Each structure stands twice: as C-alpha cells, then as structure tokens.
C-alpha cells in the first residue's frame, strides 16, 4: 500500500474491543489510512490504545473522533449502536463513509434509518468473519483478518466509489471481501454462526446444570472440547446478537428442532436406516466443508483454483498401470443403485468430481450412500419411488451426463427440483433433452436458448413416446429411458448411429427389461429395479491418453489393465489401429455384462487417415488426444461428421486447433471436423485448456513429441474424470509437474 494513496485519509474507530482494536492496528500496520483515531468510553482502554500503538490518536470525545474523518467504523456492541449513532449524527460529514463490524446487519440498517431518517448511499454495513474467545484491546491483532472473509452488505443505492474504498481497506488487511444483501447475510449467519453458538451455550449449560460439581466434565474428551469451544464466547455480545437477529434465528431454530425431533423418533423407534442416512449425509457434507477449507472441494466451481501443467519435452512411456473407473458407468451405477430395491455394491467407482457430483445429488435426495473408499461404494437403494425432495438446487459441477440423465429422472418425481452446474456446463445445450421430455408431459424451464439451470416441476404424469434422435447421443437416449421407467406405456428411442449402451446393459443387470431392436431401445414404465453388484472397469476414455502416449513416444511399452471394451466405446482403438498403432488386446473377458481386456501398446509409426464417420460416436470423447496422434502421424488426417465436439465441455475442435497453433502446428478447422497435416514440429509454448479436462490431458501427451516445454493453463478440471492423472503420467515416464492445487 505504501506507494499508493491509502483508501482513506482519517479513519475513526468507535469502540476499541477485539475487533475495533484489531482493525485499527491492521490499518496502521498496512498504511491503509493517513491517521487512525480511536474513541472508547473506557478511558483506560483508550489510553492503552495509544500506548500499545493500536491507534495514532485518542479522541477525547465522539465529536473529535468523527469530525473530519472520511471513514467512521462502529465497533460497539450491537445493542449500543442506536445510541452511538445519535451521538455522532451532528458530526458526521456529508462525504464520510459510515460502516460497522456487527454480526447482524438488519438491526444496524434499522438503527441507521431511525436515527438518520434514511439509509444514505455512504452507509455500508460490514461484518468481518473473524474473532477469538479473547476480548479487549490487549487482544488486538493486526493479522486477525488475514485470510478471513469480510462481508459487506451495501444497499442498491450505495455509492460505488465508497464501496470500492471500503473494500480496498478490508482487502488491505489481508481479508477476502464478499458482498451480499442484508437479509441473506442475516439468514446465513443465523444458520452457520448463531445457531451453533446457541447450541453450544445450551448444551454446556444443560450438562453443567445436571451436576452441581461439574464433575461430568472430567470425563469429557476431545469431541466435547471441540464441539463446545464457542460456549466460552462473550455472553453479553451473544445476547445482543440473538436479540437483534431474532427473526432469522427463530427460523433456523425451528428447522433444527424439527430435524432433531426426527432423529429422536428414529432412535425411539429403532429406525437405524434414518440414522444412517442422516449421519452419512452429514459426514459427506462435513468432508465437503473440510475440502472447501483446504481448497479442494469436488463440487465447488474451480474459478479461484489455478492448476497449471508444466511439461518438459520428450520421454518414453513404459510400465503396467490401471487408469480410474469408467465415468459413464460410475454415474449410472449410483443412479440405478439409488433407484434399486436393496443394497447395491460398486467396485472400481470413479472418484472424480463428475461422478461424485451425482453421488452427492442422490444423498441430497435422501439416499444413504457409504463411501466411496478406494472405489468401493455401498448404496442403500430407495426404489424408483423413494427419492425425497432436495432442500436446494442440485449442483452438478462440470457434468453434462449428470445433468441430462437427471433431467429424465427428475421430470417424473413428485417434487420440484432445480439442476445447476459450473460455467462450462451452464453453456451447454439442454434443449435436446428438454424437448422430448416435454413431449412426454414433463414441465421444465430452462434458461435462455435451452441452457441450464433447469427447473423441473414435479408431480407430472409422463406418457411414453417414440423418439427419433436427431443427434447420436447416449445422454439423450439414457435420459429418455430413465424417464420411461416412470412413464405410462412404452418409451422408445432410435439412434442415428450406435452410441454407448451402458444404461441399457445396466438396466438389464438390475432386472429391468430393455427391448433392443437394431438402433431402437425401449422400456415399459411401471417396473422395478432390483439391487446388484457392479464392477466398473477402467475408463477407456482415460486409457486413450496413454494409448496415444505410448504410440507416439519412442521406445514405449505400456500395459493398461482391466479396460472397459464395450463395442460402443472402442472407436479409439479402431482408429489408432487403422493409423498403424501397435495395440494388443489381451485377456478378453466379460465382467458384470461389460467386456473388459488388458491392452499392451508399443511405439509405432502412425499414418494419417480419413477417419470413418461411423467411428465418430464410438470415439466421441477421444478426439482431442487423437488430434495429437494425427499431428505426430505421417500424412493427412481428416475428421468429418463431428460437429458434436463443438458442444462438449469446450468447443473441442476450435480449442484444440488454437492450442496446436500456439505450439506452431497449423490445422484447417471445418464446420464439422478438422484437417491435420501430420509431421509438423510441435514446438514449446503456452496452451489454454479452457478448463476442459480432456484438452489439458491431450496437450500433456503432446509434450512427448515436442521440441520445447509446454505450459498448459486451467487444468483443475482434470479431476472431473481422471483424479491421479499427474502421478500416473509421471509414473509412466511423462515429464509433467504442476503449479497450484486442485
Ligand atoms: C456420455 C455420453 C457422451 C460422452 C460423455 C458421456 C454418457 O455424450 O461425450 O462424456 O455417459 O452417456 P453424448 O451422449 O452427448 O454424445
């Protein structure tokens, strides 16, 4: 801050307790104002403020503190606010910004309106989410706000410049500033801070009251200590907070009391299933919270997490590996397991963000799911009609599969639901599922141009339809078949080209008859799903990166174990073999209705080819890495009939062409494909992955034949489909390192 003008000239802090004192000392330490003046009713605290160096000057009166200050911050107990506002009113300059640090915001706004008759544009309520059980100016700490959040709740008419200055001041203390409405702030704080404090106070009081000598505490262990730490907080401050945030707190107490009552009855009636369901949902939520705190949540948007891949050129690919479980089958295993009757056990589940989003969504709809632990998941199926209404929107992260399959399933439920996703998913077309679902009787609202979020109205009776799919999409087919489980009569779908048939196979595995007649699959509504066991093979789409890697890198010999070889997924092997790749298929077997094999791949001189159009749906996710294979091949490779690639997690034709161009490889982009002249030198450079997992990994593979280092930006989404990619790549000899965390 020193070289720039500080955001304020003279700041008056009224009330030198822990928060006021810490703010004053942070402003001084980081030079966020010319002068910090303090005022406190307690003369000794005020004097201490000067001698401890917390403030520059002690104001003998409120008048002297406020007059001439361009920022006045009230750090007094919430219930003293109105009186202090009355006293400072005559001295507050028209240009001065007025803020506070209280834990409840509607009471501050109400006090300002009573005293000033209006909420001026320069009043900007604030609340630093920081504190400690210590109080008083001696505990003042200039670092108290570093890495903490500060919430500002400016009104619609707030002065933008004043908001920006106050934000700059708080950011200067090391805090992250968020803005939200007063009402939302008070609701959120009632739930996440006020209620936990109330419960802690109440529990400790109840236990202490039962035992006069408080002997009981001798037997209390760490759990009690952690849980009740906040019961040692300042009683006066908290009594203020509860009285001033009365309405929001009462709402959340009622909600909690009701839920506690449900647990009480579950215990009374020996209802272990309810206990297990609530506890495992809470455990998952708590684990999610821990991950959020350490910046690695699976259902966060990754916008503030930067992961960069640094690739060194060259290397060979060798070893014996198993890539993580198949993403498509992992989604479906949770969906059908949840809707089955009884317990389904899944082995080899992909613990990637996409399939975890599906898992979490079912927990949010009341399904008990144990795990995942090392790919093992146990799902306590609730039957086709046992889902419960989720409490809020279901967040599906980056996963188009989850959103499209869920839309079919949820269109038939008795409750309303809303499906949301990250920035990439929010741009993807959902009209392709919404239109046929509407024809079945579903009521669904989408955002502009059929994009997410999807708002699905519950309680609609669906009727089976026949649908001729205009695009070859397994997601659309699966969506309609899932809706068809609930629809009156027969639902049938005809595909223009074969697409992955995991839904059909898994439904059959769960005892639900799927009639298959050439390109048409149909189900009759009204049946039941049994439970089952599912062994998810390794994902051929993840194996694809290594199939190309070992083919293009000299002196390579790699074995990939237990790879899913469903005939609707093996386009990558067919295409690579046609290009001259040396891939041996070993130990072919069928596990749980899906073909599986081990693959041995060795370096080969690849040739460019015209990719047969019938292979496109069978290799739809593998084209980014196939473009790298084509770049390393001799001669021209032409791809046609692949316009679908433009609406995947990114526009995979354009984004790959741009990335290749950044590395000195020129291609010709067409509306429905690309032409790549093989044999061009892949140079070093920086590539943007546009947060598309498969683009990030494809350029990582390109480094094996590059002449210089490659930097790949925005790689955090690799975790959606391939957790552990970096470690596995390193293990096989790919020269990859990362910057940042995901
Ligand atoms: C998937 C189907 C494919 C594929 C996606 C997974 C599935 O999408 O690209 O990664 O699990 O059904 P489309 O069916 O839209 O082509």
How is the CATH topology of the largest domain named?
UDP-n-acetylglucosamine1-carboxyvinyl-transferase, Chain
Backbone shape: globular
Note the gap between the termini: 30 Å
Radius of gyration: 30 Å
Q: Would you count the extended β strands for me? A: 31
- What is bound: which ligands? shikimate-3-phosphate
What is the name of the CATH class of the largest domain? Alpha Beta
In terms of DSSP E residues, the strand content is: 15-25%
Sheet having the most strands:
5 strands, parallel
Low-confidence stretches: 294-304
Mean pLDDT: 93
Integer tally of domains: 4
CATH homologous superfamily heading of the largest domain? Enolpyruvate transferase domain
| Count of helical stretches | 23
Strand order of the largest sheet: 3-2-1-4-5
Q: What helical percentage do the residues reach?
A: 25-40%
- Structural class of the secondary elements? alpha/beta
At CATH level 2, the architecture of the largest domain is: Alpha-beta prism
GO molecular function: 3-phosphoshikimate 1-carboxyvinyltransferase activity; NAD+ binding; prephenate dehydrogenase (NAD+) activity; prephenate dehydrogenase (NADP+) activity
Binding site for 3-phosphoshikimate: 327-328, 332, 473, 475, 621, 648
Keywords: Amino-acid biosynthesis, Aromatic amino acid biosynthesis, Cytoplasm, NAD, Oxidoreductase, Transferase, Tyrosine biosynthesis
Family: Belongs to the EPSP synthase family.
If you had to describe this structure to a student in words, what would you say it looks like?
The chain folds into four domains: 8-180, NAD(P)-binding Rossmann-like Domain (Rossmann fold); 187-270, 6-phosphogluconate dehydrogenase C-terminal like domain (6-phosphogluconate dehydrogenase C-terminal fold); 309-318 and 539-739, Alpha-beta prism (UDP-n-acetylglucosamine1-carboxyvinyl-transferase, Chain), CATH 3.65.10.10; 332-535, Enolpyruvate transferase domain (UDP-n-acetylglucosamine1-carboxyvinyl-transferase, Chain, Alpha-beta prism), CATH 3.65.10. Helices cover 37% and strands 21% of the residues. The protein has 23 helices and 31 strands. A five-stranded parallel sheet has the order 3-2-1-4-5. The protein has a four-stranded mixed sheet with strand order 29-30-9-31. The protein has a four-stranded mixed sheet with strand order 10-23-25-24. Helix 7 (182-210) packs across helix 10, helix 12 (327-339) runs parallel beside helix 13 and helix 18 (540-552) runs parallel beside helix 22 (693-702). It is globular, with a radius of gyration of 30 Å.
